[in-house]
Amino acid sequence: MMNYSDYDRYPAIHVRTDGGVHAWQGWDAIGEELTGRLAGKGRQVICVDCYHGVWEREVLDALTARLHPDHVFLAGQAALDKAQVDQMLAYHVTDDRVFGILSHHHIEQFFDAEKRTALRREIEAAQGVVLVFGVGAALLCQPDVLVYADMARWEIQLRFRSGKLANWLSDNYNEEILRKYKRAFFIDWRVLDRHKMTLHDSIDYILDTNTADQPKMMTGDIYRAGLAQAVGQPFRVTPYFDPGVWGGQWMKAVCGLDPDKPNYAWSFDGVPEENSLLMDVDGMVLETPAINLVLTRPRELLGDKVHARFGAEFPIRFDFLDTMGGGNLSLQVHPLTEYIQNTFGMHYTQDESYYILDADETDDTHVYLGCRTGIDREEFAQALAESQETGRFDAERYVNVIPAKKHDHFLIPAGTIHCSGKNCMVLEISATPYIFTFKLWDWGRLGLDGRPRPIHLEHGMKNIQFDRDTEWVMDNLVDQVQLIHEEEGVREERTGLHEREFIETRRHWFTRKVAHDTEGGVNVLNLVEGEEAVVESPEGKFEPFVVHYAETFIIPAAVGRYTIAPHGPSVGKKLATIKAYVRT
User: Which of 141, 279, 423, 491 has CB 3.0 to 4.6 Å from 509, enough for a Cys bridge?
Assistant: First the structure.
């Protein structure tokens, strides 16, 4: 196991400024800035709109104590009550623990029209300093100052787990985390992202309260400048790590994580829909959801062809699955395209692959992939069904068990049954709809919450492709490396993915500088071999960008040409990157 200590868990974009003060930390400094903005101007409406997940009472109390508004109005006064919301959302929420249907609701639908009109009139009649606060507050007023309190999705999930946060316009504080996450994924985040984008260009200040007792605020102008800068240079999103029933020990050592934790199972290391983007503004680091970059700068980030195909969605995901010293992942399958469209309202599916970043060479490491030739479908289905009662299932009888070693790349188009075995460190390269996994068998384990993990045999059996048998898998999904180009110090290989998958991957082995070009589409890379490399622009468009072993980094389409070379302790040594992009 490589034990490099330079993995950066908190990568930040250093936003260029032209002098002056652009960011503030602490409620006193924030209050002073906002008070100064309001002072001596007669009637002033300050609107603080919020993403759900912000600790609204704490923020409201802190601002009220410092702004001394003459009037305070809460957006929640005009919202629908819980019963009305539940009735409106019942079809999309569903009874399933994991899966809902993607919502196309807009925020206006969550407010009572008469109450909203009445509240707007009260606000318009109020004199002095008027504070309008809460989720959807901007719907109720024409603000003189607009503050947006944003919130990272990972922090929202942690607040869900604490039991102190319910879903938006719900009181499900004690509901299991799977159901809270489901409602957020399928409804809350969709609605609130749409609303946030209608405000984006008008925001005067961004308020960051992701870290307890460390509120920060930056101007809307510097925030938008940071996003504009990001799409012209390489960048990393902020990874997060989580334990699991099958979790391992590899990420602890390589990524510098808490050694006292029992394990870490997975990490989102390159998922803009879920990760955050850190902005360093004059030495102050503020956090914003990386999805904001995707939603506001899709053409520069993704490129015209990718944007035309996917809209403002980032289609490539890099994440880690750590079973080193752990256990097998759950045996699973992902939905076919027509199934995910017709059942969940998602327009593309989760094709994926396992790149073996590391493996325990002293162990019989392997992956499970595809159906064994000649198995009986009905017998297989019956055995899975019985396993829910008996806690026993002979996976090796029905699924191919294929040896795995470091730098192998296994391709997994949707509909292919699969999972990683123990003692593998997987860099999962896939399409983005990460929630749509149908677990078939989980080796008789309980989740960390002590409950059986959700199994979806009915969904799974409708999607497993039984003709992807042993011969087909070996011919199409295993060891598909093709030499593309080789010269002194550089070897470029195609490692996949399968023709049914829209992602192309290229691996470069190199001891000297390698030329790359985005060719008008976003590139996502990981340094899979070697301690350190540097990414540079031949035209000097951005500052040299240093990456370390196992770090995922994104090259926006707008960058165009770039180079990657060994750097620091890796000069003179052999390195490797894996690069993913959308075939166009």
Answer: 491
Residues 29, 34: Cα–Cα separation, whole Å: 9
Question: Quick count: other Cβ atoms within 10 Å of Cβ 56?
Answer: 19
Task: Encode pLDDT of 452-485 as tens digits.
Answer: 677 999 999 999 999 999 999 999 999 999 999 9
Residue 269 is given by DSSP the state: E
Reading phi first (left if > 0) and then psi (alpha if -120 to 50, else beta), residue 59 is in: alpha
* Predicted confidence band of residue 50 (pLDDT cuts 50, 70, 90): very high
Backbone angles phi, psi at 546, to 5 degrees: -95, 135
**CA-to-CA distance for 557 and 383, rounded, in angstroms?**
48
Question: Which one, of 97, 175, 79, 195, lies nearest residue 459 by Cα?
Answer: 97
Sign of torsion over alpha carbons 116, 118, 119, 121 = positive
Whole-number Å distance between alpha carbons of 523 and 517 = 9
Kindly report whether the peptide bond that precedes residue 497 is cis, defined as omega within 30 degrees of 0: yes
What distance in Å separates the CA atoms of residue 117 and residue 89, rounded to the nearest whole number? 23
| Count of Cβ atoms closer than 10 Å to residue 408 Cβ | 19
Q: Which two tokens stand for residue 13?
A: 């974009």
What is the SS3 assignment for 481?
coil
